[in-house]
Each structure stands twice: as structure tokens, then as C-alpha cells.
Write a structure and sequence with these properties.
By secondary structure, this protein is mainly β. It has no helices and 11 strands. Strands 2, 4, 5, 6, 9, 10 and 11 form a 7-stranded mixed beta sheet that branches. A 4-stranded antiparallel beta sheet has the order 1-3-8-7, with no helix packed on it. A hairpin with a 5-residue loop joins β5 (about 45-50) and β6 (about 55-60). It is globular. The mean pLDDT is about 95.
Length: about 110
């Protein structure tokens, strides 16, 4: 059973940056689109960014120009670089492997104003 483990969350001031990592226990990234989702308290989980096997990326309008998704397939790791963070970016961020239907445990991101 492949597992995803997120890391890199934390507390940051508005305008700051964080880089999230999603490490897979197996070599799956060449077989699936990977995605980052987030869920704020009292809200539904929402899609933040995706990256396909071929490296094409897509972003939610709310993060375009600020967040960048990338993958290092040799390391079985997908990243989410988050710049110019805003308090409304505060949420638990989850990594998701679409073709396998698996999720990571989530990592908390808190942005203070």
C-alpha cells in the first residue's frame, strides 16, 4: 500500500513563504496526476493545484501567481511552493494521488495577519 506523507507546514506571517512536500513510499508519480487540496475550518476541501504525469500544471484562481506545484520524480516527492501567503490561505493542506485514490495525513498551514 503506497502512502503519502506531507511536511513543511507551520506558522508564518502574511506575505511570507512556505514549501510543502509530499513524499510517496513508492514510485507512483509517473502513473498519476498529483494534487494539493486544502481544507479550512468549517469549509469544504478545495483543490489548490494539480500536476500531470507530463508536468502540466493547473491552479485554483485564488492561488494563481503565488503558488507553484512541482515534482521531483527521482525522489518520489511533489512540492507546493507558497509565496505571498495570506491569512485566507490558512488550512490543512493534503496531498492526493488521483489514480490511486490515496491521501496524505495533511499538514497545517497558519498565516497570521
Amino acid at each position: 500500500q503506497v502512502q503519502l506523507v506531507e511536511s513543511g507546514g507551520g506558522l508564518v506571517q502574511a506575505g511570507g513563504s512556505l514549501r510543502l512536500s509530499c513524499a510517496a513510499s513508492g514510485s507512483i508519480f509517473s502513473m498519476t496526476t498529483m494534487a494539493w487540496y486544502r481544507q479550512a475550518p468549517g469549509k469544504q476541501r478545495e483543490l489548490v493545484a494539480t500536476i500531470t504525469r507530463g508536468g502540466s500544471t493547473n491552479y485554483a484562481d485564488s492561488v494563481k501567481g503565488r503558488f507553484t506545484i512541482s515534482g521531483d520524480y527521482a525522489k518520489n516527492t511533489v512540492y507546493l511552493q507558497m509565496n505571498s501567503l495570506k491569512p485566507e490561505d490558512t488550512a490543512v493542506y493534503y496531498c492526493h494521488a488521483l489514480a490511486f485514490g490515496i491521501w496524505g495525513q495533511g499538514t497545517q498551514v497558519t498565516v497570521s495577519s
